[in-house]
Sequence to fold (454 residues):
Amino acid sequence: MSEKAGSTAVLDFLESIRTPEFPISTQQYIAVGELLMEIARKGEWPEHVSGLRELIAPIVCCSRTDQAYFYKRFDEHFGRAEPDSHPEPPLVPVRPERSSFWLEHGLKVKFAAITLVLVACSFLIHRYLNQPPKTTPGVAQGRVILENGTPVSKATLRYLGQTANTGTIGEFSIAFDASKVPFRVLVTSGPLKPGSFPIDSASPPSQSVRLTERGQHETAIRKEGQVEPKWLTVPTRGEQRLERWFPAILALTIVVPILILLGYFYWLLENRTQLRRWTTTLAPRVQEIGAQNDTKDVLRTSTLQRVATALLRYVARESTEIDAVGTIAKTVDAGGYFTLVYKRYQTRAGYLFLIHRLGARDHQAQLFETMANRLRRSFLVSIDTYFYSSDPRACFRAANTKRGRPQHSTLQELAVAHPYQVLCVFGEGRHFLNPLTGEAAWWTRDLQRWPAGA
Fold:
């Protein structure tokens, strides 16, 4: 079978098997057509059409079931020239299908479980950091006396931010945290000189602290700027607040980055599942097809040249000049009623392309726009390109630069600006129908403003 006849037969076959259960989009038709043209250009056209089966299947099939159905229908339609030299790949054991609930909500359940685990871990860390420290109680006892042995009553003992007083006979008994040893205890009593004694263990021996009287030149008033020793300083309110909230701050600094990282992994997993939605467990049988690195002349084909030749036809249009001979003849034919006749001239037809565009990444709209640009630049066809999103009455022209804004126009404005051009619509017919009655929408009468229609 020749290349032209084989290509036509393959495309007709694809049209015959196109059903709602086996859909074939416009992009797939274009991909198959480009594949056949590339094979013919390289001179690698097979002797029998069956040699194209393994090349076309990866383009139109989305699953293993579609591939089996396509092979069966292809063999029934074209037959097999010879036994298949490529045996079917062995079946790969497939894991049993999971329930629909798990397929639909599995990722959400996993993400919720991970979130609960992280919240529980942060709560446990907070509880662990905020639990009261384990203390080992210690007790120190003794007496505060003067040099002559007289006991000092109501003397003040200050240690580790705590205070205690002596009894009537100068005795004292203080409790402390043994984990803070060693430290010193300051003893003060009115006009007497302050004294101190060390505590080095949890059960220190009984202490006898002797205080002496001040001299005349000494005063009990603390000098300005004199500070207490660090071992007697009580933490300020700000330091206490910082120490209280430090575990929570530490837990947030650990948990928040983990949550951000898990959210990023979840986003990657969502994209991965979206890309693998139509994958199959069987390796596709494909063959490598070379292509030129330069893609500038991809659309410079014989088919596009024939389209450009048809578009570059001459059409007759009326001018503002009066045709004297024609006016006289029409006036005579009208029985003397003056009838004007204008001259007609031949000119190349201009075209107005109105393309349906879903978004900036609509590949089909980009294909039509590329074809229009190639016809305009390479074959000098007069084409103006506009787009519409969902309603053809609201049209726009794409910006020439990235920061530019699109130029919006209505269908009536286009009819006034381009009255003599041929309107070509690339889109779906449902946009021009009334969704309730199924008939043509009332505004489609605006298409009659163009002489050739749409």
User: Anything to note?
Assistant: The radius of gyration is 47 Å. The chain is about 35% helix and 20% strand. Residues 91-97, 216-227, 273-277 have pLDDT under 50 and may be disordered. The longest strand covers residues 137-146.
